[in-house]
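Hi F.,

I've been meaning to write this up properly since the lab meeting, where we talked about keeping a consistent format for the predictions we share between groups. The idea is simple: the sequence comes first, exactly as it goes in, then the structure tokens exactly as they come out, then a line or two of notes. No screenshots and no reformatting. I'm using this chain as the first example so we have something concrete to point to.
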Amino acid sequence: MIATLCQYWQEQATTFRSTSKPRWARRLAKAWKANPHTQGRAPKALPIWIAPPKRVIPTWQREIAGAFPAAEVLVIRDHTDVDRWLARCAESAAPAVIAIISHSTKAATGLRWLPAVAERTTTIREPDLDPPADLLPYLEPITQGGVRR
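Output, unedited:
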């Protein structure tokens, strides 16, 4: 999946010529431009942030190197590494620059997960087709095509 997203990011000028860019690509470019710590209009390499438990970071590094050798992998140890990651995204010729930050480091920075899907509840009114007999005299008759049944 990461490789597919990277391909879309690298070839967005030709892939989305006749249609609008996907929402994630528009939002990434807009956030990149608005961030004072970034360079250029948009990153050259797709920035990807992964937050596994600290004990599996070496495993993630090996897995990414084996599955996606064209990508750069940076391990974020403290807040100063985030600027280095953003700079690599702006300059890198790789299709993606993947930042790996441990859960414990993320918790110390005060970052929180935001939901990817916002749930919304709606009230639906359904007619009662089998009302109690004592309510029948108070109800309007059901008509179909103007004919009472």
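Notes:
The chain has one domain: 2-108.
The chain has a mean pLDDT of 78.

If this format works for you, I'll send the rest the same way.

G.
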